[in-house]
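pinging the channel bc i need a second pair of eyes. not urgent but kinda urgent?? the chain im working w is below, pasted from the shared doc
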Amino acid sequence: MASSYISYPAGAMQVLLSAEQIQTSIDRLAAEIRRREEGRPLTVIAVLTGSIIFLADLIRKLDMPLRVGVIQAKSYAGTERGALSVNADMLPDVTGRDVLIIDDIFDTGHTLVEVRAFLDELRPRSVRTAVLVLKQGKQQVKLRPDYVGFEIPDVFVVGYGLDYNDAYRNLPYLAALEPQDIEAHRVQ
C-alpha cells in the first residue's frame, strides 16, 4: 500500500488507500461475487452507517438481480467499543434468500458476528459477508469474512464512509487518524 499525507482541519493524515486503489478492489470483489453467485438473485444488506459508500460503489458493479436493504448496528462511541444495538426497521424480508452482508471494517469481528446471527434467525437460504477492510491481528471471533477488500495494519482509519464521531466519512480515500488528531477533534 502506497501512502501519502494530506491536510485536513484536524491535522495531517496518512493516506493508506487511495480512491483508485479502493475502486480497483471493488471491481475485484464484484467479479468474485458475480462468479460465486452465478447470477442468482441476491439480497445485499448494508450495515449502516459506515458502509453506505462501499455499498453504493459495489452494487453498481453487480450485474445481477438484487435487492438492497440496510440494518443499523452501532457499537462504537469515538474509539471505544460498547454494547451492540441493532435497528432492522429498513430490512427487507430475507427468508429463503441468498444474503450478502456488507460492512465497512472488520476489526474485532463482534459486529459482523452479531448481525449475521440476527439475520440467521430470519431463515435466509444463505448468508455471506463482505468487508472493505480487515484490521490485521484484531479479530476476537472465529468468523472470517467471505470477501475482503484490503487487510490493513491496526490503525484507526477514517474516510470512504468510516468516521470518527461522524467526521471524515466524505473523504474519497482511507486515511489513518493519528492519536493527536483524535485528541484535537475531541476538543473542537
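so The radius of gyration is 16 Å. and The mean pLDDT is 86. — does that match what u expected or am i reading it wrong
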